[in-house]
């Protein structure tokens, strides 16, 4: 079934010209877009295997159909072709990449050997109905409840990994979401994501309202065998953005293997200076980091998928970044993350050059430093350099 669905998406991609414009010249009810990227990664660290290179082509296809003003049908897929030294050294790389995204397995490893990995996954497939103040979406989707840029304790359904920069759309999951808008800045919504395990279900309700010039939200729900409740705010102080969010988790007896309550909280402030430089400062408190469980599942810091109750492997983490334009076509950003656990420090410079319309060139670095637990020396752990070319259509 998955192979047939992805093959159909490829076929629709080649039919793009006929789908974009209706035969009578009127705007089409179809919308097709996406991109093709090439990324080369070189990793530097200690050991005879380094430097280590990995390369991949990434094709994304987004397809939507709008039969009328109320209904939307959408399917989106990502297709990636990997090759390089990392595949040869890690025989489990294909399984690491091919992680489940929801209740249904809409992924295919067409080829998986030490030379080539060709992987496809449908990460969006939903039907949406909107009328008056109601909005209902069923299927594979992204449910984003977070307010902060880097760490989102309120994001029960789709917590993001800031270091996984190449996945702009972010992961989704299989769910139903019902929203009712009570005003311009107020709404009530419920969402449910089923699971094939007793402790994997997520069901929650979120309310949003405005008071005193601030947007507030509160949430309560069942999160993978635990009761979760929390909330957040978003506003500004003298021109500087100020936002924060937190969630408290209480294990349910007989459903959770973790018998300890936990709390995750983050806050940040951002400001656009008169010279065009955009600055952001933030922090995260993660109570799970105190108990040695602060690891990201399904991979490391870069590719791991965090959860709302475990967003970063440290009890405390701090973030700072500055971004600006060197010219109309050339921009840069420098981000730094510092975590109290082993004094883990990540330095992430990013440079973006607009080659021409729909073409972008990126140079991204990620360097990690930490304190050696044996001699307490601050050492370089690893560094990666990414070169990426992207064409959007």
Give the helices and strands, then pairings.
Blueprint: H1 2-14, H2 16-20, E1 30-44, E2 52-65, E3 71-84, H3 85-89, H4 93-97, E4 107-112, E5 117-131, E6 134-141, E7 173-183, E8 186-193, E9 202-211, E10 214-223, E11 226-237, E12 240-251, E13 262-272, E14 278-286, E15 316-327, E16 330-339, E17 345-356, E18 359-371, E19 378-392
Antiparallel strand pairs: 1-2, 1-19, 2-3, 3-5, 4-5, 5-6, 6-7, 7-8, 8-9, 9-10, 10-11, 11-12, 12-13, 13-14, 14-15, 15-16, 16-17, 17-18, 18-19
Descriptive account of the structure:
- It is a single chain.
- The chain has 393 residues and is mainly beta.
- The chain has 4 helices and 19 strands.
- It has an 18-stranded antiparallel β-barrel.
Summarize this entry quickly:
With 393 residues, this protein is mainly β. The protein is built from 4 helices and 19 strands.
Labels describing this entry:
393 residues, mainly beta, 7% helix, globular
The outline comes out as globular
Q: Overall pLDDT, averaged?
A: 88
Would you identify the regions where 5 or more consecutive residues have pLDDT less than 50? 292-299
Radius of gyration: 22 Å
The count of helical stretches stands at: 4
Series of H and E elements: HHEEEHHEEEEEEEEEEEEEEEE
Major pleated sheet? 18 strands, antiparallel, barrel
Distance between the termini: 27 Å
Which class best fits the helix and strand makeup?
A: mainly beta
User: How many strand units?
Assistant: 19
Q: Name the helicity range.
A: under 10%
């Amino acid at each position: 079934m998955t192979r047939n669905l992805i093959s159909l998406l490829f076929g629709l991609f080649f039919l793009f010209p006929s789908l974009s414009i209706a035969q009578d010249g009127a705007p089409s009810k179809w919308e097709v877009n996406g991109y093709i990227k090439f990324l080369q990664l070189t990793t530097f660290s200690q050991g005879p295997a380094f430097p280590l290179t990995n390369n991949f082509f990434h094709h994304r296809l987004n397809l939507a159909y709008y039969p009328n003003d109320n209904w939307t049908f959408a399917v989106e897929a990502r297709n990636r072709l990997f090759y390089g030294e990392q595949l040869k050294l890690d025989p489990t790389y294909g399984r690491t990449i091919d992680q489940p995204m929801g209740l249904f397995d809409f992924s295919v490893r067409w080829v998986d050997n030490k030379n080539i990995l060709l992987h496809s996954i449908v990460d969006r497939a939903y039907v949406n109905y909107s009328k008056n103040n109601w909005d209902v979406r069923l299927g594979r989707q992204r449910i984003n409840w977070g307010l902060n840029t880097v760490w989102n304790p309120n994001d029960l359904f789709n917590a993001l990994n800031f270091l996984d920069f190449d996945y702009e759309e972010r992961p989704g999951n299989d769910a139903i979401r019902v929203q009712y808008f009570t005003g311009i800045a107020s709404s009530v919504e419920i969402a449910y994501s089923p699971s094939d395990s007793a402790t994997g279900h997520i069901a929650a309700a979120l309310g949003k309202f405005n008071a005193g010039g601030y947007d507030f939200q509160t949430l309560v729900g069942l999160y993978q065998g635990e009761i979760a409740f929390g909330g957040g705010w978003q506003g500004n102080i003298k021109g500087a953005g100020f936002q924060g969010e937190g969630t408290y988790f209480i294990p349910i007896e007989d459903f959770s293997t973790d018998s300890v309550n936990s709390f995750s909280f983050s806050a940040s402030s951002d400001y656009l200076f008169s010279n065009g430089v955009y600055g952001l400062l933030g922090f995260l408190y993660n109570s799970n980091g105190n108990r040695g469980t602060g690891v990201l599942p399904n991979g490391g810091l870069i590719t791991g998928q965090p959860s709302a109750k475990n967003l970063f492997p440290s009890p405390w983490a701090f973030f700072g970044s500055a971004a600006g334009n060197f010219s109309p076509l050339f921009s840069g950003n420098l981000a730094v993350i510092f975590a109290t656990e082993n004094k883990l420090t990540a330095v992430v410079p990013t440079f973006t050059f607009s080659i021409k319309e729909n073409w972008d060139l990126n140079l991204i670095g990620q360097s990690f430093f930490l304190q050696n637990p044996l001699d307490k020396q601050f050492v370089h752990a690893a560094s990666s350099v990414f070169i990426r070319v992207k064409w959007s259509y």
